[in-house]
Amino acid sequence: MDYQRFISDQVAEIQRDVGRGIAMSALSGGVDSSVVTVLAHRALGSQLKTIFVDNALMRAGEPQHVVSTFKGMGIPVELIDARKEFLQALAGLTDPEEKRNAITHTFYKDVFGKAVKKAGAKFLLHGTILTDIEETVAGVKRQHNILEQIGINPEEAYGYKVLEPLKTLRKDGVREVAKLVNLPGEIAHRIPFPGPALAARIVGEVTEERLGKVRAATAIVEEEFARSGAFQYLAVLLNDRATGIRGGRREFGEIIVVRVIDSTDAREATVREVPWDTLHRVCRRITEIPGVNRCLYDLTPKPPATVEYV
Ligand code: XMP
């Protein structure tokens, strides 16, 4: 594929679609939404409003880091603090699809709806890629960012049109484009991170306290495997407890699962054979998180498992 051509075609198409209007981009800091934001900024300049929504489900320090990275590239990003709205919408929910739905609606209707109105925008740019559409249409899983393909008309439901410039690319293609538009290597090579963020890695209810645990475990796993070259590595908090001992006392503690996979596009994945000494070190660090007394390594490929747990 001629990616330079892809870039100029998409820039022209965005200009044609948006005309003299205002468009919004919701940046998450992942490679997909980052590429979309850069393409749209090229196409629209100041007609583009980019926001980053802090949904309380992000990794440690992520919102501030993303905003300052884009500022460094000359793309202004407004940080919207919607932590309360998301935590309220998720309170009491344990079913995976209900959790995903709550995130979708809070994002597109409440938070976005408000931001779009404020900016007078008629278009929302989306980082949807081909794999998201295929898996959703096949009924494998509803990705949080798929609307039209499952019969939700965003114009009727939320009041704006959705543009999806990357919908013909897979992850490897998006990374090629990221390099060509000069996104920092840190973003171009970033491991995938799901739109529902850490909520995809908490089985059971998402609360601030449980988010704190999975966030701490995620930071450890990302640090330990940063140079592994694996496709994706993650930590998951289970909705179960196990007996353990801490400080000579019985503790009925939380369980964290570590997952390290190799894949080219996340449609299928194999499990990385991690050296024992690395696994032991990861286990020791993770069980130092207060309240966590077990750490498991997931040996399941995709299929039959998916990458995320929710
Ligand atoms: P699964 O869990 O479906 O994940 O095997 C496949 C790849 O997609 C990522 N993922 C998501 N990305 N929104 C996203 O943007 C989502 O709702 C979502 N769910 C999973 C996952 O991290 C993996 O790379």
Shape estimate? globular
The string of secondary-structure elements, in order, is HEHEHEHHEHHEHHHEEEHE
Low-pLDDT runs:
none
Which structural class do the helices and strands define? alpha/beta
Report the sheet with the most strands, covering strand number, pairing sense and barrel closure: 5 strands, parallel
Distance between the termini: 34 Å
Strand order of the largest sheet: 3-2-1-4-5
Computed Rg: 20 Å
Helix content: 40-55%
Question: How many distinct helices?
Answer: 11
Give the tally of β-strands.
Answer: 9
Strand content: 15-25%
* Small molecules bound in the structure, each named once: xanthosine-5'-monophosphate
Q: How much is the average pLDDT?
A: 93
Q: How would you describe what is shown here?
A:
With 310 residues, the protein is of the alpha/beta class. Helix content is 42%, strand content 19%. The chain contains eleven helices and nine strands. The chain has helices spanning 3-18, 31-44, 62-72, 83-90, 96-119, 130-137, 154-158, 171-180, 185-188, 208-225, 276-286, and strands at residues 23-27, 48-54, 77-81, 123-125, 161-163, 232-246, 249-262, 270-271, 292-297. A five-stranded parallel sheet has the order 3-2-1-4-5, sandwiched between helices. Strands 6, 7, 8 and 9 form a four-stranded mixed sheet that branches. The radius of gyration is 20 Å and the shape is globular. It starts with a helix and ends in a 13-residue tail after the last strand. The protein binds xanthosine-5'-monophosphate. Xanthosine-5'-monophosphate is lined by residues 141, 143-145, 192, 194-196, 200, 232, 266, 302, 306-308. Residues 141, 143-145, 192, 194-196, 200, 232, 266, 302, 306-308 line the site of xanthosine-5'-monophosphate (XMP).
